[in-house]
Amino acid sequence: MNQAVSMHVASQSARSRSETAAFLLMVAFLVVAPSVIYPLFLMKVLCFALFACAFNLLLGYVGLLSFGHALYFGWASYVSAHAAKVWGLTPELAILAGAATATVLGVIAGSLAIRRQGIYFAMITLALAQMMYFFAIQAPFTHGEDGIQAVPRGRLFGLISLADPMAMYAVVVVIFLACFMLIYRIIYSPFGEVLKAIRENEPRAISLGYKTDRYKLVAFVLSATLAGVAGGTKAIVFQLASLTDVYWAMSGEVVLMTLVGGLGTVFGPAVGAFVIIAMQNYLAAFGQWVMVIQGSIFVACVMLFRRGIVGEIANLLRIKL
Amino acid sequence: MKRLLGLAAVIAAIGCMPAKAQYSDGMIKIGVLNDMSGTYADLAGPGSVVAAQMAVEDFGAAAKGMKVEIVGADHQNKPDIGSNVVRQWIDRDQVDVIVDVPTSSVALAVNEIVREKNKVFLISGAAASNLTGDKCSPNTVHWTYDTWSLANGTGNAIVKTGGKTWFFLTADYAFGHALERDTAAVVEKNGGKVLGKVRHPFPATDFSSFLLQAQSSKAQIIGLANAGADTTNAIKQAAEFGIVKGGQNLAALLIFLTDIKALGLQTAQGLVFTEAWYWDMNDANRDFAKKFSERNKGIYPSMVHAGVYSAVMHYLKAVQAAKADADGKVVVAKMKELPTDDKLFGKGTIRADGRKIHPMYLFEVKKPEESKGPWDLYKVRATIPAAEAFRPIAEGGCPLVKG
Amino acid sequence: MFEIFGIPSQALFGQLLIGLINGSFYALLSLGLAVIFGMLNIINFTHGAQYMLGAFIAFFLLHYAGLNYWAALVIAPIVVGLTGILVERVLLQWLYKLDHLYGLLLTFGLALIIEGVFRNFFGSSGLPYRVPDSLQGGQNLGFMFLPNYRAWVIVLSLIVCFATWYLIERTRLGAYLRAATENPTLVRAFGINVPRMITLTYGFGVGLAALAGVMAAPIYNVSPQMGADLIIVVFAVVVIGGMGSIMGAIVTGFGLGIIEGLTKVFFPEASNTVIFVIMAIVLLIRPAGLFGRRT
Question: What pTM value is reported for the model?
């Protein structure tokens, strides 16, 4: 543990002012943005930004590529929608119910998947997610192809009505920032340093006495839970939980967002989510070309810009982001 | 001036302009939302946009001083994409009326949003009968057909000609369930029996294992409670597995002109089904079909296209009469108050629950030797009068209907 | 489906045969994946798209060149194999030195591009492809009516699978291949051009996918997303079998097809998920897969 602590201290000092500056810039943007940009669009970006940040915690800092993160996102959105609509829970409790579901699913899927490494890990997570997708089609409470529709946004803590877009926006911003700071905290905690050690060289981490499987599982569950928060929030914002959110294409999208923004950077996934959602939104008129463009971005990122947008900027300016 | 216009366009695009004018933003904006690239692209798709344009032109909107604009979008049969588009259309692009929306799951989602935002929803492509039942809305008119009317027409006709035992092959979503439920009720009411059912994913490609289950049920009739490519695939594969040769018959509960065209008369001949409109029934229809196909890549109009035309026409009349389009409930109330009358559907009415009432027709697919042209596909077997064609208003359970 | 127990044999054998047909496709596709993985250490996510390409080429050949099914059966795998070789030369070969995950991501992106392009031009509803005339009709087996074409699919895929197995496990070329997988440097020292071998292997694996696509065209219609969902099931098949052995991929492919068929009889609701459940169980008991070596 000593080593981790010393690494931690080192990174404390290395944690540069650039990150703080970027964070303040982001908060400022979130405050100003809704008066210029369509709030519903912003909320969608924030939900996906959180989803991508959660995903990045696993891929960027532990080096585990989960190709089935839609499982946690989508199932959390189903449970949140169901909780808000059928059980009549307040929105914050509904989102928590969704996140709790994602945690449970994360424990199950995670403990199966970490039995294999590398490519197998990706394939197993994908297959498990697809299994739960089929389950979502058939389970009566998800309403199959229809999805759970007309989910009430309800009143926050039973008091504040979220029907007003700005109130809803404020809630989403708070959820996003809280989770973002939590992830940041995790990354720079001693626990996070062990994760990075596993990413760099797992056999070495094992030889140092770390039970790496346990660390991997905890990281996996954390990532799943946060993805669940994102999914639950999305269900409340859009008042709909549907099959799209559990489908494998969604898992692919979150990989793309993270890759575009920058693997293993703090701000990358959020930037990536913004770029991809904006692209989908403004190019929606081009129909299926969106899919082609997304594929091309994938190829371009893998072949040419493996650092992603934020990674390239950070590299150019020689700062940490 | 040009710069000013550009600026105005930017402001409009950002979407901060409140709707105050008589015709909100001085313009009536029609949003045609449907499946532009998938299973239903031919029977609705870009053709529905053409049909809406033709309605606007025939109504003579420009001459009457109304500015009408039509936008179209693809919902890919996914409720989340559909509701996203509709929210943006209404919030940002000031769309006043949403038209068509095949795929019941998407229509149900749009139904809720349009109600919440108090705009107008004219359904032509979707079928679920609960859109005028428990899910009915003061902002929605269900125009062309619904699952109850199909089940009623086809189910009645088949049970009465001896098809007593049924097995359902049902697409696993709202529309499929509704169609199966409504048909099963008609079958049982007429003394028939439902032996079983199997639900297949939507969309499905391989029906072999479902068809084998249907075969081993020994039912006389295999009811296909699905639509589009699912129906045509099931019919083709039934032929491949020798099901019709083995003595069982298929009942396509919802099939469109474009599907029959794709199947070919050789495979489809003799199929009996219910529809609301066919292009070769009178001169007005034939004339419409000719003009329509010229603008729609040679594809002839389906009943969904005709329904879009008819619905848009009546909507414009109501807006003109009400002299406003901003308040959706007011417009729909006006639509219900005015009798409907256009060249394709003739005279009709809209009920309090939002159901448009007109006759339905029982068609049979022609034999190859009877057909005189590439689109000469149907013959009329029976007319179901308007009074009997749709579910009685009291049975739907629509909260808008008092008493 | 409660009546099924009233007439068990009929339904059972029927569904078993259909399971075997699905199993043929699983086997062909997982075989291709296993061959590629063996040489390149890459999971080829584009496999589903290449399967779809095979079907589309068959469709083009029939409608634009007037070439029938039998010609397509030969031409489509060659064409797709050549495009595969191009992909390997232009893109994939630069990634071998990196984490294997990049190969997965690249092929995923390629799959999106191919599927998107085809969706654009051909919609997503699928195009019909006729069963060739010489395979029209079917046999009444007593318990079911088996269309001739489906019988042909089972036979052909068995032949192709075992030919591939023989090629890799029993010939000199196969011996080089296996050796190159184990120790590329050593094989290179023997004067064998390993990079070219890798390229050809990718082309061959991809060609197998295209062959499966041509075979699928008359059954499933030709549609842009025909491969996308299938490939995930095939991934699960590969995880169950373990990618160590060619025979493993073949046996698990057919075996899981049959199990899936059985599920359709006894518990139809689970027929979509059964393969994934089996995968989870196998992971618990034998993490390396049924035929895999512990890595």
Answer: 0.86
Query: How distant is the Cα of B240 from the closest Cα of chain C, in angstroms?
Result: 6
**Over chain C, what is the mean pLDDT?**
87
Chain C CA closest to residue B227:
C125
Residues B25-145+282-358, CATH architecture: 3-Layer(aba) Sandwich (3.40)
Contact B92 A143 (CB under 8 A): no
Mean pLDDT within B299-303: 94
CA-based nearest distance A81→chain B, Å: 13
Query: pLDDT digits over A109-120, tens only?
Result: 999 999 888 888
By the CB < 8 Å criterion, does C278 face chain A? no
Distance CA C52, CA C58 (A): 10
Question: Using a CB-CB distance cutoff of 8 angstroms, which residues of chain A are in contact with residue B172?
Answer: 137-138, 144-145
Instruction: Name the minimum distance, in Å, from the CA of C116 to any CA of chain B.
Output: 12
Which residues, at least 6 apart from A88, have a Cβ–Cβ distance to it below 8 Å? none
For A292, nearest residue in chain C (alpha carbons): C113
Amino acid identity for residue B161 in this structure? T
Residue A5: predicted pLDDT: 44
Domains B25-145+282-358 and B148-275+360-389 share a fold: yes
Q: Do A38 and B81 touch (CB under 8 A)?
A: no
Which DSSP string corresponds to C130-173? Answer: PPPGGG-SEEE-SS-EEEHHHHHHHHHHHHHHHHHHHHHHHSHH
CA distances from B296 to B286, B293, B301, C126 (A): 15, 5, 9, 20
Q: What is the C-alpha separation between B113 and B97, in angstroms, rounded?
A: 12
Residue A119 and residue C104 in contact, taking contact as beta carbons nearer than 8 Å: yes
In this predicted structure, what is the pLDDT of residue C127? 80
Helix axes B208-216, B228-240, angle to 10 degrees: 60
Q: Yes or no: is domain B148-275+360-389 CATH 3.40.50.2300?
A: yes
pLDDT tens digits, residue range A136-188?
Answer: 988 889 888 888 988 999 889 988 889 888 999 999 999 999 999 999 999 99
- Nearest chain A residue to C288 by CA: give it: A116
Q: Which of A123, A294, A303 sits opposite C43 (nearest CB)?
A: A123
| A67 touches A303 (CB < 8 A) | no
Contact C239 A127 (CB under 8 A): yes
Q: Is C123 left (phi over 0), alpha (psi -120 to 50) or beta?
A: left
CA A1/CA C26 separation, integer angstroms: 48
* Between residues A37 and B174, the one the model is more confident about: A37
pLDDT for residue C125: 67
CA B369 to chain A, closest CA, distance in angstroms equals 40
pLDDT at A14 over 60: no
Chain B residues within 8 Å of chain C (Cβ atoms): 37-39, 41-42, 195-196, 198, 201, 203, 205-206, 208-209, 212-213, 216-217, 228-229, 233, 236, 240-242, 246, 262
